[in-house]
Amino acid sequence: MNEFNLQVENNTDRLDRYLSQNLPSLSRSRIQQLIEQAAVQLNGKVCTSKKTTVKAGDRISLEIPAAEPLELQPEDIPLDILYEDDSLMILNKPAGLVVHPAPGHSDGTLVNAILAHCPNLPGIGGVQRPGIVHRLDKDTTGAIVIAKTELAHQHLQAQLQAKTARREYLGIVHGAPKTESGTINLPIGRHPVDRKKMAVVPVEQGGRSAVTHWQLKERLGNYTLMHFQLETGRTHQIRVHSAQIGHPIVGDLVYSSGRSVGVNLPGQALHAWRLRLQHPVLGEWIEVSAPPSQIFTKLLEILRRRVAISPQN
């Protein structure tokens, strides 16, 4: 259990706001939760109203209970760690690994693996768990950042919302775009019929703004290696946008109408290639590149060989 004792100096402010400004390691929502749980005392008396006004001379004490253990079980699943310190870790996720437990995937997830790797997590929101800052689809490989502390989780999520963090992907698509680069600005929402899928949906019908920048990296006959950069992070965003412009991701059985490339793939040929973010504590910029999987590299080699032996060459 951690305890903080503060004395208000020249301030008149709401209790929750004052505490969030003076205890930057805690998010405001976490502070509000602690106030509701009677963990805050004002001048020696429990205060459960976040709107209470504090003034100069007031004494505030806050007790943070030890993080409750997560009900999930740690599992010894190998992790490809690209970067790690006390605040965060960046992993190269393999295909087939679900990030977070969900119906049908109660174990064997990335979270289970992290709990085994980091048995002494300080906790986020009062629960001993890793902070999933952003997600990757089950069969999408590549760089994913995990927060170890509440401060890191809050800071990294704010970077994604402010678009200061940069996420870049490599994908192999069907067909060959006519131009060298472009931007897809189409809102995405839940598919109106198939609720397991996402789709381009007008904002007035529930779609949310989604922007994907793309650049052609290599022409491979009837296929293309593309570089994607996300401005927003909607579910299945690259996969939906690529399919919408007529160039679905190779191996995507959900959005590519079952087109075959003649290579046995574990899922869509989409890889979170590079991640750039600001360290939540040190303030310096971190840029990490995740090597593509063997199957992604093999697919590229096969397509290059096909182009090399094509009669047109």
Any key phrases for this structure?
single chain, 313 residues, Structural Genomics Hypothetical 15.5 Kd Protein In mrcA-pckA Intergenic Region, Chain A, 2 domains, 4-stranded antiparallel β-sheet, 6 helices, 20% helix, elongated
Overall CATH class of the largest domain = Alpha Beta
Please state roughly what percent of the residues sit in beta strands, choosing from under 5%, 5-15%, 15-25%, 25-35%, 35-45% or over 45%.
25-35%
- State the total count of DSSP E strands: 20
CATH homologous superfamily identity of the largest domain = Pseudouridine synthase
Order of helices and strands: EEHHEEEEEEEHEEEHEEEEEEHEEH
Please report the number of helical segments. 6
Helix fraction bin:
10-25%
What does this structure look like?
With 313 residues, the protein is of the alpha+beta class. It folds into 2 domains: 2-65, Roll (Structural Genomics Hypothetical 15.5 Kd Protein In mrcA-pckA Intergenic Region, Chain A); 69-309, Pseudouridine synthase. 20% of the residues lie in helices and 31% in strands. The protein has 6 helices and 20 strands. It has helices at 15-22, 28-36, 110-117, 150-162, 237-244, 294-309, and strands at 2-7, 13-14, 40-42, 45-46, 53-54, 59-64, 68-69, 81-84, 88-93, 127-128, 131-132, 141-147, 166-174, 181-185, 188-190, 198-200, 211-220, 223-230, 270-278, 285-289. The strands form 5 sheets. Strands 8, 9, 11, 12, 13, 14, 17, 18, 19 and 20 form a 10-stranded mixed β-sheet that branches. Strands 1-6-3-4 form a 4-stranded antiparallel β-sheet, with no helix packed on it. A two-stranded antiparallel sheet has the order 2-5. A hairpin with a 7-residue loop joins strand 15 and strand 16. Helix 1 (15-22) packs across helix 2 (28-36). The termini are far apart. 34% of the residues are buried.
